[in-house]
Amino acid sequence: MNLKQLSELLGLSQTTVSRALNGYPEVNQATRERVLKAVKETGYRPNKAAQRLATGKAGSIGLVMPTETGHYSDVHFGEFLSGLGEAAVRHDFHFVIMPADPQDEIGALRRLAASGNVDALFLAYMRTNDPRLAMLKSLPIPFLVHGRSLGSEPDYPYLDVDNEQAFHDAAKLLLQLGHKRIALINGPEHLDFAIRRRMGLATALCDKGLMLGPEHMHHSIMTDEHGQLAMERFLRLPERPTGVLCSSTVLALGAVRAINQAGLKLGEDISLIAHDDVLPLLRPENFSVPLTTTRSSLRAAGSRIAERLIGSLQQKADMPEQELWKAELIVRASTGPALA
C-alpha cells in the first residue's frame, strides 16, 4: 500500500491524505480520523524520505551520548532509553544517538541540531550551572531536560524527580527508627541528582541537630563494585553507620554483599534504603532481605519525555512545560530500629 493507493481507496487527493497524516490544521477532524482508520486497517506506512521532503520534519528525537575509552555503560541510562523508544515507536518517530567526546558535548549538540536529522533534542546528566542550557536555548529546535541544574534559572522545559525530598523522606524514616549515624552511597558528586540527594539527607540530619560528615559520604559511578567498596569503608570506621542511603539498587547490590560478608544482618545490625529506578533485572523485593526504597521509574520518565517532545512538535496544547515527580517511599525489611 503506497500513498497513491491509499488516496484512491479513500477517494481523497494524495495531498489531503499527506496533510492529514502530518497533522496540518486545515484538515478537519473527521477526515483525519478517517485517514488514520484506513492507515491502521491497511498497514500503510509513509515513506520517511518523502515525508521529510514534504514537511521539512525528520520525525526524529536526538541525543548526544558521551563516550570514551574506559567509559562505563550505564544500566540506568539504558532503562531510560527503553522508555523513550517505546513512546517513539507509538508515534512512528525515531531517535538519533550521536556519540561524542565528553569534552565536546556542546559542539556535538550544535552539530546534531544543525544536521537536519532531528526535530528536537533532550538532555540528561545535568550539572550545577550547566553550560549546555544556554546553548540549547539559542537553537531553533525544541528541547527537553531530564533533571534540573542547580544555580541556573529554572526557565527551561524539564522533567525531574524530587530527589531532595525523596532522600529527606528516606532519612526521616531512619531517624524515626532511632538512627543517628547515617551514611550516603551516592552517584557522581558533580551531577545534579546526586547533589540534591545529599542535600535532602543533610537537611533531615540538621533538623535533628546532626551533621553529615565527609567520612559518611561516598560518590562514584553507580556500579555494584563501587557500592561494595563504599560499604566496606563505612564498616571499617571506629563508629560505623547504623543506617545507609544508596542512590541506586545497583549500588545497593554491592553494599548488601559487603554487609553479608561482614557477618552482619541487614535490617537488624544495619539498615539500608535505596533509590529504585524500577530496573527489571534488579527488583528490590527480590533481594535476600527486601529493600526499603524510594521509587520512581526511569522507563516511565523516558516515555514521558518522548511524549512531551513529540507533543510539542505536533503542537498539542495540553503539554506541561515543567514536571517534578514525587518518589514513593516503600518500606520493606531492610530497615529496622537502631541497635542501642
Automatic annotation (TrEMBL):
It comes from the Bacteria. Residues 1-55 form the HTH lacI-type domain. SUPFAM superfamilies: lambda repressor-like DNA-binding domains (SSF47413), Periplasmic binding protein-like I (SSF53822). GO terms for molecular function: DNA-binding transcription factor activity; transcription cis-regulatory region binding. Keywords: DNA-binding, Transcription, Transcription regulation. The keyword Iron does not apply. SMART domains: HTH_LACI (SM00354). Signal peptide: none annotated. It holds the Pfam family Peripla_BP_1. PANTHER family: HTH-TYPE TRANSCRIPTIONAL REGULATOR GALS, LACI-RELATED TRANSCRIPTIONAL REPRESSOR. This is Substrate-binding domain-containing protein. It comes from Ferirhizobium litorale. The lineage of its organism: Bacteria, Pseudomonadati, Pseudomonadota, Alphaproteobacteria, Hyphomicrobiales.
